Amino acid sequence: MDLRIGHLYPDLMSIYGDKGNVIALSQRARWRGIAAEVRPYSVGEWREPEWPDVWFFGGGQDQGQDLVGADLAGRNGESLRKSVASGAAIFSVCGGYQLLGTEYVPEVGAAIPGAGILDVTTRAGRKRFVGNLVVDSADGPLVGFENHSGRTYLGPKAVPLGSVVVGNGNNGEDKTEGAIQGKVIGCYLHGSCLPKNPWLADRLLQWALERRHTDVKLAKLDDEAELAARTQATEVAQARP
Amino acid sequence: MPDALAIVANTAGKLTREGLRVMGRGATALPGLVALTLDPDFISALSRELPHGVVCVSGTNGKTTTSRMLSDIARATGWAPIHNRSGSNLDRGVAAALLADATWSGEPRGDLGLFEIDEASLPGVVGRVRPRAVVVTNLFRDQMDRYFELDALARRIGDALAGLPAETALVLNADDPLVASLAIRKDANVTYFGVDDDAVGGNVPQAISDATRCPRCRSPLRYERVVLAHVGVWSCPTGDFTRPARDVSATKVVLGPRGSEVVIGGVLASMYDEIRVPVPGLYNVYNALAALATARALAIGLPESIRALANFTPAFGRLETVEVNGKTLRLVLVKNPAGFNAAIAALLETGRHPRLLAALNDRDADGRDVSWIWDADFETLAPAVEHAVITGLRGRDLALRFKYAGLPAEKLAVVDDPAAAIEKALGLAPAGSEVVVLATYTAMLALREALARTGAVAPFWED
Fold this sequence. Notes:
The structure holds 2 protein chains of 2 kinds.
Chain A: E1 2-8, H1 19-30, E2 35-41, E3 54-57, H2 62-72, H3 75-85, E4 89-93, H4 95-100, E5 103-105, E6 112-113, E7 120-136, E8 142-154, E9 162-166, E10 176-177, E11 179-181, E12 184-187, H5 193-196, H6 198-210, H7 224-239
Helix pairs in contact in A: 1-6
Chain B: H1 4-22, H2 30-38, H3 42-47, E1 54-58, H4 63-76, E2 81-83, H5 91-101, E3 112-116, H6 122-129, E4 133-136, H7 144-147, H8 150-162, E5 169-173, H9 177-180, E6 189-195, E7 222-228, E8 231-235, E9 248-255, E10 260-266, E11 274-277, H10 282-297, H11 302-310, E12 318-324, E13 327-333, H12 337-348, E14 355-359, H13 378-381, E15 387-391, H14 395-404, E16 412-414, H15 418-428, E17 434-439, H16 441-453
């Protein structure tokens, strides 16, 4: 069995340590004897957009985000939509999450269209949400660090990833955090997210492997260190939000 | 003579300082806060009285080492620098340094202000102190929850520098495109420094996307050599922005475990061509170049500068060593991916297999977001590590980082209490060996305090 990871715009959308998500997916596959390969996809026409089983799309600076938004408005956006339609999964954080939505509405000027893969819209906000973020969901708890001024609102096709326990999440109003739509996930959890939240990493691995393999059954890993990190981060978040 | 308000602020700050000392506490920031609360213009009121003016040293990494080198150089030339040494490098730290040095009537005893300024505070500070020189060492991602995005920060710094009088000396790193872009005015008085040894650095850009695009036109930059992150020999393919000519340049660098031998080119080459930088690591070569370039901008003679550099000893947590029970602790302060990678490169370049004591905290001074550890190159470090003892408020995140970088569980131990962690790390090290301490700012303070209780080091504020 093998896993193919496409890292979207690693040169432009890789700040705040989001690379840890790619490390987590690769290592958790390798520890189970599954070969993992990571390939970068950046600005300019992609070769083999049909290759990845799972895409990772992280957060970036404003400058990077402009370039990436323009790139996704062209043929690469179409490739990404096709890839999702053919069963690939996406995990996106912060800027990547916003760019997968239907549109981004700046404080002044016209709305900027997104890739249209997640039914969410984001509006510019004045106050930046910076701090620890603890989320509860039916599938398990999540913890990370948020750092964004965009306010994201979900449309009917997306469901929240979870509800906010500490922090602001999607918009600071409705207590939701993140979005899931099919095999596409967006959220505001830096940290990195997946190493400390192994159930979510394994969910994505399962989805990714199912694209080209049948009867995928992930072996159980020893997650003691992962859960210890999650517990410590959650305690810190509750003491110092 | 400062005005009455500044004198009142000075007195109140000094009283606060005395009070803290009586209680046996360090006084690196609070007295400054008291003075600034009473007189927001306190810094400019006192710094106007300094005959040799003020030098602001800023940038993400290397501020402390560069200003300490510069302070030693200034002292060797007979000046009396006032330096906010203790690393409390915000406004209030500067104010605290000024009032610690001033007489009760608010007149400074020193003659040169040497102020380390956080890069985020720099735009606000330079307008007030009217510096004679501003040094920017480099600009990397650091504590993003405080500084937000690097491009925007560089623009703010550039604008603030452009607002200073044209004769203000700017000392800038030519190898960092973001720093090189800070000289906006055509008539700016700039001294550039950089490394011109082809044997230094590699060809592949390291995967840290701080500034891989041209600051002017956003085209992807081309690199002939990459020294660290986006620092190296770069050019913009559109030709709208080029790496400036180096006034002070290292044409040959030989790195060693205890320091580097550097051949200096550029304008300085005619008289003295070889210098010794007695602290290891290529990044300290950059710090030395920044200090020499600044000395030149201040018209300090080269013999004094080189002599002072050769006798330099490192600052708190900057590869400083402490002897404990026949073993050596080497303290390395880490706070961002670029600094971490530079530190581990310095550790590994001489073939060490480090025994580590690593500590991660997430207080304000450390950066509250610990995500950055996932950008740092633990994958290069892990295979060389002999053993790692982990501590700190977010030690579990750090242990997890080592796990995902491939360090086997049997080489890893998490010990929450700082004193117990030191004991464990020393216990695992054979007699005569070295333990490398990698820690963020407040985590290093906690370890330092634990060491001070055993009498191994003096308390930090007496540094």
